[in-house]
Specification:
Elements: H1 10-14, H2 21-24, H3 28-38, H4 96-102, E1 117-122, E2 125-131, H5 132-137, E3 143-149, E4 166-171, H6 172-192, E5 196-202, H7 207-222, E6 226-232, H8 242-258, E7 262-269, E8 275-280
Parallel strand pairs: 1-4, 5-6
Antiparallel strand pairs: 1-2, 3-4, 6-8, 7-8
């Protein structure tokens, strides 16, 4: 026995979408089927709330998908003159070479980071890989995402896998103060570093000129500077007796003792020939 079917008038079928639901569906079977379909209860989904670990400051669960690698198709093919067209990995990853060519004296910060995925250090614990855009949306006011270590591509020769860039979430004000103190320390270290002055004397130098040179040397040593003193023969000058040469060296040593300076290493050469003294003063 053939199954009973509901045959609807073609005119009603044609105007199905222009009439109310109650006037469009005339057959009882179709109306009951549709009502059952509309009133069907949708399946329930269980929601698992994100529960950060004790050391973790914010939740990153359920939003980031593992990056499978590969290059995204670009709208226009790369130029033949582009040296990075065959780099073998996504161009968005930032390597040390990219940082050097960027003209910045630091790794990228915040939205300067173009890497699709990164490792994140948050409150001392490393997490990832995480989508960079998602991490940026989780930053609180006054926080900044700073790249610490750039991306390292995989090495086909050694078989070493690629390493994602490591970024750190920092407080802008605390990081500013830390960088300020670091610059001050470097500045102080450079200023405290003793500078080396080179001076030359001849064994045949006159008494007045020798006194001027020794006074100048004493001024350098009194500032805590290093002095490299060379005493030698003057080309085309008069011959100097050994006693006269020893007298010049004696006056130099007396000035060194008067300034409280010291020899950083043993003197080179010999009296009457070419002799070098390496001195370092004490800042007063």
């Amino acid at each position: 026995m053939a199954a009973t079917r509901c045959v609807c008038d073609s005119a009603r079928f044609a105007s199905f979408f222009s009439r109310p639901l109650s006037s469009t569906i005339s057959c009882q079977a179709s109306r009951q089927s549709l009502l059952q379909h509309v009133s069907a209860t949708p399946p329930s989904y269980s929601i698992f709330p994100c529960r950060p670990s004790p050391r973790q400051l914010r939740c990153y669960a359920g939003t980031s998908r593992p990056y499978k690698g590969g290059k995204k198709p670009s709208a226009s093919p790369p130029s033949d003159e582009d040296p990075d067209k065959d780099r073998g990995y996504d161009r968005r990853f930032t390597t040390q070479r990219d940082i050097e060519r960027s003209g910045r004296d630091r790794p990228p910060w915040d939205h300067e980071i173009t890497d699709p995925q990164i490792m994140v250090i948050d409150n001392g614990s490393a997490e990832g890989p995480l989508a960079t855009r998602y991490v940026l949306t989780k930053l609180e006011e006054g926080e900044s995402l700073r790249m610490v270590t750039p991306y390292v591509p995989a090495n086909g020769e050694t078989g070493a896998p690629a390493k994602l860039a490591v970024c750190k979430i920092v407080n802008k004000r605390d990081e500013y103060e830390r960088q300020k103190q670091l610059k001050e320390r470097k500045k102080t270290a450079v200023a405290a570093k003793a500078k080396t002055k080179e001076m030359e004397l001849t064994w045949a130098i006159g008494g007045h000129d020798l006194a001027t040179k020794l006074r100048q040397m004493g001024g350098f040593l009194g500032k805590g500077m290093k002095v490299e003193l060379m005493i030698g023969k003057k080309k085309g000058g008069r011959a100097v007796e050994m006693d006269e040469a020893k007298d010049v060296l004696k006056k130099v040593q007396e000035e060194i003792e008067a300034q409280g300076a010291r020899e950083t290493k043993k003197a080179e050469g010999q009296v009457g020939g070419t002799m070098r003294l390496y001195l370092e003063g004490i800042k007063r």
